Amino acid sequence: MKSNVIERPFPKTDEEWEALIAEAPGEDRPLDPDEERAFWEKAVVVREGGPAAVRAALAERRRTRGPQKAPLKVPTTVRFDADVLAALKATGKGWQTRVNEVMRDWVRTHP
Question: Which domain holds residue 47?
Answer without folding.
Answer: 14-63
